[in-house]
Amino acid sequence: MKIRFPWAKREHSHPEFIFKYIVCAGCGHLIPNGQIGNKMVRICNETRWGKMEWMETYGESCVPDWDIKEIGIDGKVKYYKIIKEQLVEID
Question: Domain for residue 16, yes or no?
């Protein structure tokens, strides 16, 4: 027995423009998804309930100096840069 949802069409497509652009985490402008100048930054947030991680994308004009942003349980923020497979803390 197959479960079918009445609102789902068998043949449907998503418009290209939905996935073509993403929002810059620095300035909030739309930037092309997959552009070479974009930079992905990993965000690590530690809470009492566990650790959450996600990626933020920055455009060419908003590229930060760090590669990893870590937010501790006490609210202190640390920035790290990856240099030759090693993490270096930025003050």
Answer: no
